[in-house]
Design a protein that fits this description.
The protein is of the alpha+beta class and 143 residues long. 33% of the residues lie in helices and 29% in strands. A five-stranded antiparallel sheet has the order 1-2-3-5-4, covered by helices on one side. 26% of the residues are buried.
């Protein structure tokens, strides 16, 4: 098993850092371009949710990402220690958002759920939220 952990300030500019870090960590597995794009999208949605909804863009706070690779199975955890989610079922509803003033808001978790093999959400009010995302890469050696 190979794993990494990184934390960074809850600034939207750091979303690109998180995307690049995850993509680079996957490189030894020789993922397809489509798989890299899917992982970057997953990271983008999860990290921006933590920054916008978990922390209200408070740059004093930190987002933590952890990644584990076992074979071709990848598990990504994105965690914040922010305000938490009151109703987990409600946030899974497409177009539901607590940031109604933002364009394209309300699709992040739906996008993650569509691209991932599995999405788990753990959240406690005023303690934070953890997304655990699992996705298998295709086996490219058996063509």
């Amino acid at each position: 098993m190979n794993q990494m952990e990184v934390s960074f300030s809850a600034i939207l500019d750091n979303e690109n850092f998180a995307r690049t870090t995850v993509a680079t960590f996957l490189t030894p597995l020789n993922p397809t371009i489509d798989e890299i794009i899917e992982w970057k999208t997953i990271v983008s949605e999860a990290v921006s949710n933590a920054i916008i909804h978990g922390y209200n863009q408070n740059s004093e706070c930190f987002v933590v990402i952890k990644m584990k690779i076992e074979g071709r199975q990848i598990q990504l955890t994105v965690q914040d220690y922010g305000k938490g989610i009151e109703n987990l079922e409600e946030v899974k509803t497409p177009f539901y958002t607590t940031a109604k003033d933002l364009e394209h808001a309300g699709m992040g978790l739906t996008i993650i759920e569509t691209l991932a093999d599995r999405l788990e959400i753990e959240s406690v009010i005023n303690i934070g939220t953890k997304l655990i995302i699992t996705k298998n890469l295709k086996d490219h050696d058996t063509i």
